[in-house]
Amino acid sequence: MSSVSEAIAQRITLGYVPERYGFDLVPSFASAVTVTSLADDVDSVRPGALFIPQSKISQRVLAQVQEKGAYAAVLPHSMRPIMESPQFPVMFAEPTDQQLGLLASDIAGSPSNALAVFAIGGENKDDVWANVIRLADFLHMLGNPVGVISAAGTTSLERTMPVTHPLGILDIQHILSVCAEDGAAAAIIALDDDTLRQGALQSVQVDVLGAEGSEAHRDRKAYTEQLRNRYGFTLDRQATMSIRDEESDELASQTDLVHDTDSQRHLSLSIAMVMAAGVRKPNIRSALRVSRELR
């Protein structure tokens, strides 16, 4: 199921889409029609949806989405000859991943701008997921409600989200919008192919990127570009990928919250990433101390 619908922050008119993205709207007088969600498969269509199928569809499928309440559809130009008199508004286009990401972000209210977005890569998906969990726990220690996007479990605060991995562009914008609506201060995204489809993070602004593994430690800039090219996120030009270092290792060693080398390694990366986000060392030490005292 791929959709942007639950925590809609914006409504857009069909006329806005051709103006911004160059799609061809038929009939043109439908420009005032307002859509309230996006969907890319029949099951996720809701009343008011703009249906954007992932591939060419039949007129039977188009009739199904109309019956389910879709207000309009985006179809490839190759279908135009058989759609001269569509029964509801149609836009003809071949949207790129970038255009789809922008449109999904628009209708979701640009949710990544409302959250501190952390993303974690690595050579081993189990390590990636463990680092995501550790960072979520550590951000909780620092008083931040968190959303998590990971094949090991996607959640908004304490709520498990009923999604199917790997996630696509519409899924990501939907999840981020739900996290923002629920009051999350941050979202953590696992950068692995079990969690994300290629290009899934189009129009997602990542604030802090972290990683473990030989590739990250050998050439952070090259590994950053590799992850950006695969998943499509944007990152400030001045941002540097966070990795463990002597300082974060030292801070991680000052607590008895972790008892093995792997856990200490994951905590060290979490510390490096929150420091990159601007959290001061005294606050980190205080959080570690308080958590230890509460055990």
Describe this protein's structure.
- The protein is of the alpha/beta class and 295 residues long.
- It folds into two domains: 3-95, Udp-n-acetylmuramoylalanyl-d-glutamate--2,6- Diaminopimelate Ligase, Chain: A, domain 1; 111-294, Mur-like, catalytic domain (UDP-N-acetylmuramoyl-L-alanine:D-glutamate ligase, 3-Layer(aba) Sandwich), CATH 3.40.1190.
- Helix content is 38%, strand content 17%.
- The chain is built from ten helices and 16 strands.
- The strands form four sheets. It has a six-stranded mixed sheet. Strands 12-11-10-13-9-15 form a six-stranded mixed sheet, sandwiched between helices. Strands 2-4 form a two-stranded antiparallel sheet.
Short description:
38% of the residues lie in helices and 17% in strands. With 295 residues, the chain is α/β, with parallel strands linked by helices.
Comma- or semicolon-separated keywords:
Udp-n-acetylmuramoylalanyl-d-glutamate--2,6- Diaminopimelate Ligase, Chain: A, domain 1; alpha/beta; UDP-N-acetylmuramoyl-L-alanine:D-glutamate ligase; 295 residues; single chain; 38% helix; 16 strands; six-stranded mixed β-sheet
Q: Which class of secondary structure composition applies to the elements?
A: alpha/beta
Which CATH architecture of the largest domain?
Answer: 3-Layer(aba) Sandwich
End-to-end span in angstroms? 40 Å
Biggest sheet strand order reads: 1-5-6-7-8-3
User: C-alpha Rg, in Å?
Assistant: 21 Å
What is the typical, i.e. mean, pLDDT?
A: 92
Under the CATH scheme, which class of the largest domain? Answer: Alpha Beta
What fraction of the residues are assigned to beta strands by DSSP? 15-25%
Low-confidence stretches: none
Shape: elongated
Query: What is the makeup of the main sheet?
Result: 6 strands, mixed
Keywords: Ligase
Protein name: UDP-N-acetylmuramoylalanyl-D-glutamate--2, 6-diaminopimelate ligase
GO molecular function, one term: ligase activity
